[in-house]
Amino acid sequence: MFFNSKFWLKFSLINLLIVALIGLLMRYKIGFEFPYLDQKHLQHSHSHFAFTGWISHTLMILMIEFIVKNGKRKEENSKNFKKYNSILIANLICAYGMLIFFIIEGYGMFSIFFSTASIVVACVFGYQYCKDLKLLDNEYLSVNWFKAAIGFNILSSLGTFVLAYMMATKNIHQDEYLASIYYYLHFQYNGWFFFACMGLFFDFLNLKKSENAFYSNSFKLFFVSCFPAYFLSTLWLDLPLWIYILTVIAALIQVFTWFKLLFILIRNKLDIVENYPFFLRYILLFIGFALSVKFLLQLGSTIPTVSQLAFGFRPVVIAYLHLVLLAIISLFLLFYIYAYHIFYINNQIKFGIILFSIGVLLNEIVLAIQGIAAFSYTIIPYVNEILLGLPLSLFQE
To answer: If 0-12 CB within 10 Å is exposed, 13-18 middle and 19+ buried, where does residue 149 land?
Structure first.
């Protein structure tokens, strides 16, 4: 079978629905009785399946499609890249294995097996993909973003191995446990997810090195700053002063790079976006706003008192993670899929994506209010019921 991105993306949308379903079930268990499933096990299943079955699966497909359409032997690429079908099948098997066994046993023999196998699949994909990137001309700026994304994906696995070891041996130390979780999340969210999406975004706008030197420089700045930016997630630890200074510098670099790149794109590439339907322009504007908020929040978290408050209250952490995963990454993937007309756009899809974005926004607002209220130990009435109702909008897509 030739490589068919539309076929594989159908699994992506099904998996997104499953992610939303588990999220809804988790919200239900917070406010109502549902004793049959363990909440912690659901959380592990939800996060692992979202990362592997929805986002990583979709990124792999779109990155492969990027080479198929831009490679030097376009008429042969779809046939030559059928080898990726096996990788995508293996990734889906791992994703569904984690979905099922994390619910059944939490961190146990089978869930750790599928989690480890997914890392092996990611490494195989990364090796094969980097080889196939040689089919592209050097003019494509997306290539560096994709190579870095693959590197960060593999790098993030170190956090997974540490977590799996602690869970398997029951030898858990709170600081090391949290640091490992945030290590994995950082190099997934801000490494693999962000850099892969930026590569796709550069492809969408057809940016060239010769058009503006900052297009290349933006990659270098984000790449270098990504490593010390990990410590933005561990400011609650007693870090040495020099690491704290590096962390602040990294946050400043990312804010500067993003806003400068954004202004350049608005000035030079706005006409490309204007040719798309209103709902896609709205989604892109929504994503740009969310990403701007994300970088500003990172910078704000370098203030010690703010950092201690933010990491001390779970709703704030959850709100930030969902801001990145839903408002930025997930919406961008949906935007990219429909902007390239991989699926036919009808009124139901338009309504679904807009409703999805509204649901994400309201979810962030409620979580933010809950987090701020928690600072003064104020209880928001019916907040669990409200948070239960909001995920229903995610099913409309």
So the answer is: buried
